[in-house]
Amino acid sequence: xxxxxxxxxxxxxxxxxxxxxxxxxxxxxxxxxxxxxxxxxxxxxxxxxxxxxxxxxxxxxxxxxxxxxxxxxxxxxxxxxxxxxxxxxxxxxxxxxxxxxxxxxxxxxxxxxxxxxxxxxxxxxxxxxxxxxxxxxxxxxxxxxxxxxxxxxxxxxxxxxxxxxxxxxxxxxxxxxxxxxxxxxxxxxxxxxxxxxxxxxxxxxxx
Length: 207
What we know:
Strand order of the largest sheet: 1-2-3
Radius of gyration: 18 Å
C-alpha cells in the first residue's frame, strides 16, 4: 500500500495526470502509535553541550538531527557540497535523495549562525572530502547514547527522539499538519498525518 501511495502521489503531485489519490481512504491496520518521547529545552541544551565535548563530528550530527529533524539515513547520506554557506549566518542544508522514487522527500532546511559556527569548526578539524559523517547506523546510535550519558539525561535518547523533539518544537512555533509533513519529508497520507498529529498534541498548551 505504501508503494501504491507513492505511485499515485507521483501521478498527482509531479506528473499531474490525476487530481486525486484513489487509495486515499485505504488504511491497512489501525495501529495505535505511542506518544513520542521528546526532550525539554534544558535537556536539549545539556545534550548539545555534551556533544561539543565528544568526538569532532558529534555536535554537528546531533544539531542536524535535533534542530533540523534529519533522519539517521539522511545524516549519513549528507555530503559536504549539500550544505550551502554562501550567505553568512544563513546556512542551508539540502536534503537530496538519489532514488527518483523518493524525490518527494527532498527539501531545503534553513540553519542559523549557531549551526554555521559549529559546522565551520567541524570542517576545520576534520576536513571531510565528501560525506560529512562517514560512519554507519550503529556508530550514530552509539554516539547519541554516549552523548546522552555525558549529558546525564535520564531518558533513553535515540536519533528518533531527536527527530521527535524537532517536530514538536516546530509545532510549538506554529507549524500545522501539512507543514510538519513537509519539514519531515513525509508523504501526505493517512498514516503520516496520524503520526504528525501526535506532535501537534504535545505542542498544544496544557489546559
